[in-house]
């Protein structure tokens, strides 16, 4: 699709207060289409296009309206029925229930990459294709993505670790797209005294016959009304720390129809994702069944967490894209001082920054999704690479989404601060990404841990060098040569980190994570530029690469800088006084 589609897209009839209602979020996104063309086979993309367009239309209209209604009318916890019996049921707004139908049933989000059959397809979806649907959905609805992701991940965990009997019983329920047969799942891990220190958890598991009984509390349980939960608990006599934790499957309703023995004490009054119920639970001898090995619970849960981290980054990247779209539509339709906002140079610079960040985030999530696909094919190298890419994306993209959402709100001005518009909801939701599945500090330290424990640095650097060596276009190859010395400096820094664990390295962990992200993003953008030059003879991506390097990897105040040769090389490619029109024409069509 042409990049000038944005110019032709329908917006509010009142051009003084434009919004994105009625825009097809897929058709309006040439970058998403470019990435799918790059990573998917032509047959796969051709089959998927009608469904992507359908979801894009829903996201720009019905889904967005449903999401905002559900955010306004939050879930209600009903402790007792009319007979005075304890039921602990969560009552959701009809808009949320309709979104569940769209996500779980119409598009099969929890099933699409776990089994064949979604849309009648003979194979499960690749991760690249799967996350393209999530990317569109999350541009309008963030909260429901949590239950859908946990259901998706729980099915994967059972497929990998559960007994054949447990898989046979629960896997079809978690991957069903039929209204009365589908189950949703949750992940109950956090406790009051533990938080990020999961090893401090105290929920106790007592062996009773062929099952266990759980006793104790969980402090933060998202999708608290789930049909089943995967919970970490410590069997009696097990050692302290994470090594003593086991994973248990906890159904909400027992086979005899009775409610399992746990209480939902209250729902959390959250800043964002308000339409999805999170709560506090007390287990009072709840029946539970071991998943996998008794002493491998934390390791199994972390595989679920890492999958959720990538999903989290996808959602944050989607909110960045939505924020950019809101900003550009606003700037095109609003006037100030006799001009549309988009004609003002500083406003254009602001919007270009949002586009640059959103596009780089999209590049990173789909590149990592492709790594995920290769890891699933059995490549140990890509499994190790995935181990470090998921926290890297989660750490940077989820944090950056907060900034982009706030900038988009500011561009809309006073209206952006009013709940009638979508911006406040995006800002609230964007803040959750950096907290779920590990705060930014925890994530930054986990990257360093992956270097020490899993040698993930070797997989990351090998992948970086390999990507640069495969470039075909001479202009991209020259840029790669200039990047080489910077990659070498990064490798030296990694060697110092691995050689000695120190407080200084911990203090610098977040800055190191950010630099690592920018280096990887720049290399991925360069490989995309090489592909685009070869297939479309377009320099658009190369222009994005140049600006990304200039903005994030040159002239930094710390010691981690690109060498002089790259700076001089880039200056030869771009005249900052008179930018060549042929290099930016496609981008200007988006933001002009």
Summarize the topology.
Blueprint: H1 5-8, H2 30-39, H3 42-59, H4 62-72, E1 76-80, E2 86-91, H5 94-106, H6 127-137, H7 145-161, H8 164-174, E3 185-188, E4 204-208, E5 211-222, E6 228-235, E7 246-251, E8 262-267, E9 278-290, H9 297-333, E10 335-336, E11 339-340, H10 345-376, H11 380-412, H12 423-430, H13 440-454, H14 456-469, H15 474-499, H16 503-507, H17 509-536, H18 540-552, H19 564-573, H20 581-591
Parallel strand pairs: 3-6, 4-6
Antiparallel strand pairs: 1-2, 4-5, 5-9, 6-7, 7-9, 8-9, 10-11
Helix pairs in contact: 2-10, 3-6, 4-5, 6-9, 6-10, 7-8, 7-9, 9-10, 9-11, 10-11, 10-17, 11-12, 11-13, 11-14, 11-17, 13-17, 14-15, 15-17, 15-19, 17-18
Supply database-style keywords.
single chain; 20 helices; two-stranded antiparallel ribbon; 592 residues; globular; alpha+beta
Report mean pLDDT, rounded to a whole number.
90
- Main sheet, how many strands, which sense, barrel? 5 strands, mixed, barrel
The coarse silhouette is: globular
Give the strand order of the largest sheet, numbering strands 1, 2, ... along the chain: 4-5-9-7-6
Portion of residues in helices?
55-70%
Beta fraction of the residues? 5-15%
How would you characterize this protein structure?
The protein is an alpha+beta fold and 592 residues long. The chain has a domain at 455-591. Helices cover 55% and strands 12% of the residues. It is built from 20 helices and eleven strands. It has helices at residues 5-8, 30-39, 42-59, 62-72, 94-106, 127-137, 145-161, 164-174, 297-333, 345-376, 380-412, 423-430, 440-454, 456-469, 474-499, 503-507, 509-536, 540-552, 564-573, 581-591; strands at 76-80, 86-91, 185-188, 204-208, 211-222, 228-235, 246-251, 262-267, 278-290, 335-336, 339-340. The strands form three sheets. The protein has a five-stranded mixed beta barrel. Strand 4 (204-208) and strand 5 form a beta hairpin. Helix 10 runs antiparallel to helix 11, helix 11 (380-412) packs antiparallel against helix 12 (423-430) and helix 11 (380-412) packs across helix 14. Mean pLDDT is 90; it is low at 1-13, 556-566 and 572-584.
């Amino acid at each position: 699709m042409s990049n000038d589609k944005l110019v032709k897209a329908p917006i509010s009839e009142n051009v003084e207060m434009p919004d994105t209602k009625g825009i097809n979020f897929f058709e309006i996104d040439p970058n998403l289409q470019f990435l799918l063309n790059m990573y998917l086979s032509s047959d796969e993309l051709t089959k998927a296009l009608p469904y992507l367009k359908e979801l894009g239309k829903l996201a720009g209209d019905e889904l967005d309206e449903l999401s905002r209604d559900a955010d306004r009318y939050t879930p209600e916890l009903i402790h007792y029925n009319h007979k005075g019996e304890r039921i602990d049921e969560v009552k959701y707004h009809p808009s949320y229930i309709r979104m569940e139908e769209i996500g779980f049933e119409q598009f099969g989000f929890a099933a699409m990459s776990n089994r064949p059959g979604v849309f009648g397809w003979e194979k499960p979806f690749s991760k690249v294709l799967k996350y393209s649907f999530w990317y569109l959905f999350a541009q309008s609805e963030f909260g429901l993505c949590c239950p859908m992701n946990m259901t998706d991940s729980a099915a994967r965990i059972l497929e990998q670790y559960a007994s054949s009997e447990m898989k046979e019983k629960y896997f079809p329920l978690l991957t069903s797209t039929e209204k009365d047969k589908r189950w949703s799942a949750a992940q109950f891990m956090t406790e009051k005294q533990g938080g990020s220190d999961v090893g401090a958890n105290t929920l106790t598991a007592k062996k009773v016959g062929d099952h266990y009984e759980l006793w104790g509390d969980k402090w933060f349980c998202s999708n608290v009304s789930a049909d089943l939960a995967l919970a970490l608990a410590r069997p009696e006599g097990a050692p302290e720390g994470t090594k003593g934790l086991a994973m248990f499957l906890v159904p909400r309703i027992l086979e005899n129809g009775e409610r399992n023995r746990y209480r939902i004490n209250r729902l959390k009054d959250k800043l964002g994702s308000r339409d999805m119920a999170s709560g506090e639970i007390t287990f009072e001898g709840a029946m539970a069944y071991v998943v996998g090995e008794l002493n491998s619970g934390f390791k199994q849960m972390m595989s679920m967490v890492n999958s959720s981290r990538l999903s989290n980054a996808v959602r944050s990247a989607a909110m960045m894209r939505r924020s950019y779209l809101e900003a550009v539509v606003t700037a095109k339709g609003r006037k100030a001082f006799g001009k549309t906002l988009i004609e003002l140079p500083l406003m254009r610079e602001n919007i270009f920054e949002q586009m640059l960040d959103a596009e780089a985030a999209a590049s990173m999530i789909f590149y990592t999704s492709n790594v995920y696909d290769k890891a699933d094919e059995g490549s140990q190298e890509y499994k190790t690479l995935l181990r470090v890419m998921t926290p890297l994306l989660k750490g940077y993209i989820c944090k950056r989404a907060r900034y982009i959402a706030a900038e988009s709100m500011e561009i809309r001005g006073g209206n952006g601060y009013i709940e009638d518009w979508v911006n406040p909801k995006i800002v609230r939701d964007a803040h959750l990404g950096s907290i779920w599945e590990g705060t930014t500090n925890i994530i930054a330290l986990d990257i360093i841990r992956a270097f020490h424990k899993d040698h993930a640095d070797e997989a990351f650097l090998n992948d970086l060098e390999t990507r640069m060596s495969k470039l075909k276009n001479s202009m991209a190859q020259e840029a790669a040569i200039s990047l080489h010395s910077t990659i070498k400096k990064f490798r030296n820094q990694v060697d110092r980190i691995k050689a000695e664990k120190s407080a200084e390295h911990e203090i610098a962990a977040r800055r190191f994570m950010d630099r690592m992200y920018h280096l990887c993003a720049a290399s991925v953008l360069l490989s995309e530029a090489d592909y685009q030059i070869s297939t479309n003879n377009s320099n658009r991506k190369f222009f994005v690469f140049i600006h990304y390097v200039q903005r994030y990897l040159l002239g930094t105040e710390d010691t981690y800088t690109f060498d002089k040769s790259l700076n001089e090389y880039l200056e030869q490619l771009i005249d900052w006084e008179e930018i060549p029109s042929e290099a930016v024409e496609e981008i200007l069509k988006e933001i002009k």
